[in-house]
Design brief:
heterotrimer, A: Helix Hairpins, C: mainly alpha
């Protein structure tokens, strides 16, 4: 049985975080910015959940458990909480973007701004 | 009563949470019952906070283990490490709790008239109480992941409250900026928590502090935690979102948001002093805080002089005042590894910084409330359109003067008593810190005089002939905070000895915090 | 004494200043009482006197916020041009600042800390 290299998930998480920061900083469209934040959350969640991974481990459910290692359950609990929180954050952001579009008629972060200085 | 105090720390978090979801139900029947419910629950929470403060002053750190058979059973039978969620309340946490309970009560009272013309008020109070929950959770928790969760609760409800008045375009923009910045900062906090958990297999602050090694990932985690929390607290050069979000929120919410900034600042102190503590042998982190604090003081106040929007102008002053706390506590952190210097001036610097948190938490919400009162009466935040309002709004004028004198550090008001503590102690670290502090103080007075002149002084303007004094509940809320200012003014030494010094010692004494979790196995 | 705050070299007692303030208020009240009481109401005696010129309307008379501290801003023009440059109001820039400051402080901590 072949396993993926153990560092691979961390590299993927780092890539996700890097790409999402690129999107958040350089894309002026507010919807794209929200997608960047969703990706950032996904990257952090992937990092968390891969912390608990053990090669060849089984799910951490204690009934009828086979022999061998078990993956750690705490990071999974953390990830689940984090996913739930991010759903709320993204929903709230999208609501505000709808209102911004209604008021200013623009989704560009530079054209829709009213406050500076 | 004993049982109540034993369970008080969780009750303080749970009561606003439960009440928050009762509000829409009660609000359907009657408006008065809903307002009474908000006041009663917040007043009961404030009572519990004060009872807990008394208990902590007598018995030391308060521990509450969730889900255990007995609240002080931190390590479950058969385990070597604390795996349960633990609430840990020490001198510093309870000081923040006292501030939060007073300000949230005042803000709720202020809201009754201030948002009376808005729709969806039931949801407003639900969000307000959720924000109270998030703030208390951040202050009382002893668990890093829990800190993240409560940080998010406070941010989400705060952002929704900033954008509550959807009829204005700028509120949506401010709320959006706030939620984006909070989401990124809290995700970075979560990333840092992951880095720490990967190495030490623990989430409890006390248990982590015991085993932390200060390896390379730890340093990265420290940078992420520190900068994320300082960004949420609004430190220059990460302050750019701060005036945008704070100036557009309803004034009562702005007053509360200031305290969430302080809660993030508290989290940054908790990370530096308690989590890393003795590991920070060199003074690099202290210097980072001092330099950014000096920048905050100076840039904040010079930008404030420039502003023409009354709430925006006060937001920049909040940034500038936060700089004093960063400098005071940063000096303490820089000399943490040197017991002789710590005893000479380090502890006084930390005390001064913390005392300034308390003072700022009294006068800044008061000033924001007067700004909200101006908005309520004139319908604008633009200072160029105001003038001569002192003829009509006598109470607001007097309360504004109290707040102004206090924030500018004019003796004998309370702003001076904390500033002198900071000046005297940081002078021995480096004189330039004190000089900057005094210049900033002068500029603060200058800019508040400017705003006072343009809003309140001068002849009665024809467009404000019909303006009346603000409703009574708004005045009551402002008077509560002004009474706090007067009390601290009259008894500074009492406050310092009873509340501030225990809080400073709680930050310095890392061992007591660790022992409370790991040593107290029954 | 619980009323005196001591810190290093200094001490601080608000009561002394409050007493001084009260004394000043008494003096002010004394001077105010000596003022002329027998003026005629609703005549030219209560009008504003501006060298015989016509007094402008209330709205014109009030010095608005934009005109206050003009010299201060004129002197510090260069400083304000520089300090206003990062205050763009664009959310993308805010995140850029966050990433930059985090990276710099992480590097500082890795090298020196």
């Amino acid at each position: 049985m072949e396993y993926i290299p153990l560092n691979f998930p961390f590299l993927a998480a780092a890539l996700l975080v890097g790409v999402s920061f690129y999107i958040i900083i350089f894309k002026k469209n507010l919807i794209k910015l929200i997608m960047g934040i969703a990706m950032l959350a996904a990257g952090v969640n992937l990092f968390l959940v891969s912390l608990g991974y053990r090669a060849g481990g089984t799910a951490p459910i204690y009934t009828d458990v086979p022999e061998g290692p078990m993956v750690l359950s705490v990071p999974q609990a953390l990830t689940l909480t984090s996913i739930v929180i991010n759903v709320a954050v993204l929903a709230l952001m999208l609501t505000m973007v709808i209102h911004i579009y209604r008021h200013t008629g623009s989704l560009d972060s530079e054209k829709s701004r009213k406050m500076k200085g | 009563m004993d049982t109540l105090i034993t369970h008080s720390s969780i009750l303080i978090i749970a009561i606003p949470l439960v009440t928050a979801f009762l509000i829409p139900l009660v609000g359907m029947t009657s408006k008065k019952a809903r307002n009474a419910l908000v006041i009663v629950s917040l007043a009961f929470v404030a009572f519990l906070v004060f009872a807990l403060a008394k208990d902590i002053a007598i018995n030391g750190i308060h521990i509450y283990t969730l889900g255990a058979t007995s609240p002080d059973l931190t390590t479950p039978t058969g385990f070597m490490a604390p795996v349960r969620i633990i609430l840990e309340v020490d001198g510093m946490s309870i000081l923040m709790g006292i501030i939060w309970s007073i300000v949230s009560l005042a803000a709720a009272i202020f809201s009754f008239s201030h948002i009376a013309s808005e729709t969806g008020q039931n949801r407003f109070y639900t969000l307000l109480l959720l924000m109270v929950t998030g703030g208390f959770g951040m202050m009382f928790t002893g668990d890093l992941f829990n800190l993240f969760v409560f940080l998010e609760i406070a941010s989400i409800s705060g952002a929704a409250l900033i954008a509550f008045r959807t009829k204005f375009a700028d509120t949506q923009e401010g709320g959006f900026k706030y939620i984006v910045v909070s989401a990124i900062a809290s995700l970075m906090v979560l990333f840092a928590i992951g880095l720490l958990y990967a190495q030490y297999n623990s989430l409890n602050i006390g248990a982590l502090a015991q085993v932390i090694q200060y390896t390379t990932p730890d340093k990265i985690a420290l940078a992420l935690l520190l900068i994320a929390f300082t960004m949420k607290a609004g430190m220059v050069p990460l302050h750019l979102w701060f005036p945008d979000a704070y100036s557009v929120a309803p004034a009562s919410i702005t007053g509360m948001l200031v305290i969430t900034s302080h809660a993030c600042m508290y989290a940054a102190f908790r990370v530096c002093f308690t989590l890393y503590g003795g590991m920070l042998g060199t003074s690099v982190v202290g210097w980072i805080l001092i330099i950014f604090g000096l920048l905050s003081m100076f840039v904040g106040v010079t930008m404030a002089v420039f502003q023409k929007d009354v709430m925006r102008f006060m937001s920049y002053h909040a940034i500038s005042q936060l700089g004093y706390m960063w400098v005071g506590v940063g000096v303490g952190l820089a000399v943490l590894g040197n017991p002789a210097l710590l005893a000479t001036y380090g502890r006084d610097a930390i005390s001064g910084g913390i005392f300034h948190i308390l003072n700022h938490a009294m006068y800044k919400p008061l000033l924001f409330f007067t700004g909200g009162a101006l908005f309520y009466c004139t319908g604008t935040r633009d200072l160029t359109k105001m003038g001569g309002l002192a003829h009509k709004m006598k109470w607001t004028t007097i309360l504004y003067i109290i707040g102004t004198l206090s924030i500018s550090g004019i003796p004998p008001l309370n702003g001076f008593s904390s500033k002198i503590l900071i000046y005297e102690s940081v002078y021995q670290f480096h004189p330039i810190l004190t000089i900057t502090g005094i210049i900033v103080s002068i500029l603060t007075l200058a800019s508040f005089t400017k705003a006072f002149h343009s809003a309140f002084m001068g002849a009665e303007l024809p467009e404000y002939k019909e303006v009346k004094e603000v409703p009574r509940s708004m005045i009551i809320a402002m008077v509560i905070l002004a009474a706090g200012i007067i009390f601290i003014t009259l008894f500074p030494a009492l406050i310092v000895n009873w509340i501030i010094n225990p809080a400073a010692d709680a930050l310095i004494n890392q061992g007591a915090y660790i022992n409370a979790v790991t040593g107290a196995t029954p | 004494m619980t009323l005196i705050l001591e810190s290093g070299y200094a001490f601080w007692n608000p009561i002394i200043l409050i007493i001084a303030f009260a004394v000043v208020m008494v003096v002010v009240y004394f001077f105010r009482r000596r003022g002329q009481k027998k003026y005629k109401k609703d005549t030219a005696q209560t009008q504003i006197f501006l060298c015989g010129e016509e007094v402008p309307e209330a709205g014109q008379r009030h010095i608005r916020v934009g005109n206050i501290y003009w010299g201060f801003f004129e002197t510090l023009k260069e400083y304000y041009n520089q300090v206003l440059r990062p205050h763009t109001g664009i959310i993308n820039d805010y995140v850029l600042w966050f990433v930059a400051v985090t990276a710099i402080s992480a590097i500082i901590l890795l090298i020196a800390g």
